[in-house]
Specification:
alpha+beta; 4 strands; four-stranded mixed beta sheet; 9 helices; 6% strand; 65% helix
């Protein structure tokens, strides 16, 4: 199954789950309130994600004259990807890592850490840049925002059902065929299911960005080598002073810290490297 098809199916699952929990609520009013709240939170994140995250990590925008070699790589790879050259930013962090953000290819930025520039070879850096351009070209910020809205509505609605059921407010009555116990069980299960589906979407987009990046750079092995180095560093010395809510944006989770892989926004590094090795072999 391709990553694009898997993403579509997972978004369909989120939508189906939303319809299910919306039906358990009984009335439309609560669902509309939940939708408005989720939209407000995620719309701000979608529209201003570049400013927010760059400011959070004290990133400094670079011009072509600040890093000519890096900028030349970005121009070449952007041409291969068929997108405008994104802005380039440098993060004052010694842990090697990178991320891309921006609501569309015309407003995108690729940010790399000082550690990435210091610890990786130029070929590996090129592989990392290609991966990040894959996220931009594949409109992953938009897709993650849509998934975030759906998951947010599910979580808000589930919370409303819990309170309504526990205190006997609203919802479907027994005469209308509702089952308060089933509704309460769904209210506890649905948010966990939504979170797992959202993480599965994130993992699927990472695989797709790896494949896209390998195609843009023409060197899957260099991206695989970079992933191994970045992951090894993250396990030994997680990023300091960052926000774990942004972990999904980075090429490798910079706050690994032994978190359970089941709840990771990234696929296992070993699996990503294996897939890239298969691409290298053709």
């Amino acid at each position: 199954m391709t990553s694009q098809l898997k993403t579509a199916l997972l978004l369909g699952l989120l939508t189906g789950l939303l319809m299910l929990i919306g039906g358990a609520m009984g009335g439309r009013g609560g669902l509309v309130i939940a939708f408005v709240l989720a939209m407000a939170m995620n719309l701000g994140s979608y529209w201003y994600s570049d400013r927010i995250v760059l400011s959070m990590y004290r990133a400094r925008l670079l011009g072509p004259g600040d890093a000519p070699g890096l900028y030349a790589m970005l121009q070449e790879l952007s041409a291969n990807a068929g997108i405008p050259v994104p802005r380039l930013a440098l993060i004052p962090q010694q842990a090697p890592n990178a991320f891309a953000t921006g609501r569309n290819p015309d407003n995108a930025v690729v940010a790399v850490t000082e550690g990435l520039m210091r610890l990786l070879t130029p070929e590996e850096i090129k592989g990392v840049l290609a991966h990040e351009l894959g996220h931009i070209a594949n409109r992953d910020i938009l897709i993650q925002s849509v998934a975030g809205v759906l998951a947010g509505v599910i979580m808000y609605t589930a919370s409303m059902i819990k309170w309504a059921t526990l205190f006997g407010l609203g919802g479907r009555s027994d005469e209308e065929g509702g089952n308060p116990i089933a509704a309460l069980a769904l209210a506890f299960i649905a948010p966990v299911a939504a979170m797992l589906i959202q993480m599965a979407i994130s993992r699927s987009r990472e695989y797709l960005a790896d494949a896209s990046g390998a195609r843009y750079s023409g060197a899957p092995g260099q991206l695989a080598s970079a992933l191994g180095k970045i992951a090894g560093y993250a396990e030994q010395a997680p990023m300091q002073g960052g926000n774990e809510a942004t972990a999904h944006m980075f090429i490798i989770n910079p706050f690994m810290g032994g978190a359970a892989k089941w709840f990771s926004t990234h696929p296992p590094v070993e699996d990503r490297i294996r897939r890239l090795a298969e691409l290298e072999r053709g």
